[in-house]
Amino acid sequence: MEQTGSLDTHGSTGHAAPDPRAAAVRVPAQSRAPERGRERGPERGQARGRDRDVAAGASPVGAAARGEHTHSETPLPPPPVRPPGENPPARTPSARPVVQRTSVRGQILAALRTALVEGELAPGEVYSAPVLGERFGVSATPVREAMQQLALEGAVEVVPNRGFRVVRRGTRELAELAEIRALIEVPVMLRLARTVSAARWSELRPLAEATVRAASTGCRATYAESDRAFHRAVLALAGNAQLVQIAEDLHRRAQWPLVGGPVSRGRADLVADAAEHTALLEALIVQDLPVVQSLVREHFAGA
To answer: 132-162 in b/e burial notation, b at 16+ Cβ within 10 A?
Structure first.
């Protein structure tokens, strides 16, 4: 490899013209490649041999340019030669410790979502991560991470130096969510009603029955989870993962309590809502499209 500049006594490369007197202070030939113009006789042959070796892959490309002393390095042994068709041996993965923070964060996120649905986290109130951490018996870090996720979902908003405020929601926002859900899900369910077999719809009966049992307990959080599970299973038949995810987010937001204190929907409301799941499933089985459309719109309006 050619040297493009002179090397001073400190080993740095310059751009000035070579000084004839520099030969007296050049580093020994054993520690660097010979310079252009100084290769003579055997040295030139050796240099050309090294160039051929570099071109053939015998030494790392660019080693001399980085100032590495490749002449004193022990060459790596060649890779083992395996018979044709033989696969290389499988690499055994090294054991790694299981990180628990994600699990704790997920548990806290689920607990906070339940508290939101049940109205334990009141709209308009500010909650700090350290206080909630003491409540759940964890540090403030997983609580803060879970709250940041809820902020992305629109459930809370960040209050600098204080914590997180639960977003106030009114009836208008609930109506807007119902309209968006109907625009997305009604066409999909009508298409599924025409294409999915009755036997496939019958497989969803256990999920519809689970919503009825959950509603009978009067626990809004328990019913909210079973409600989303039923709708998620119905939309999954469309084979569109993005659709399922968007509908799930809208559904979850529609389950948050309205501003004004206690949760408005009681046990009777939950039981009536769950009954609509069973009626919708029956309409899907018999492909009664007008009933399907009517039930879905009414169901969203009462969510």
So the answer is: bbeeeebebebbbbbbbbbeebebbeeeeee
The HSE-up count of residue 172 (CA atoms within 13 Å, CB side) is 1
How confident is residue 283, by pLDDT bands cut at 50, 70 and 90? Answer: very high
Residue-wise pLDDT tens digits, 106-133: 999 999 999 988 888 888 899 999 999 9
Sheet holding 156-159, edge to edge: 126-127, 163-166, 156-159
The mean per-residue pLDDT over the stretch 68-84 comes to: 48
User: Scanning the structure block, which residue is given the tokens 């009681």?
Assistant: 266
What pTM does this model have? 0.61
Contacts of 170 (CB under 8 A, 6+ apart): 258, 259
> Which bin fits 71, alpha (ψ -120 to 50), beta or left (φ > 0)?
alpha
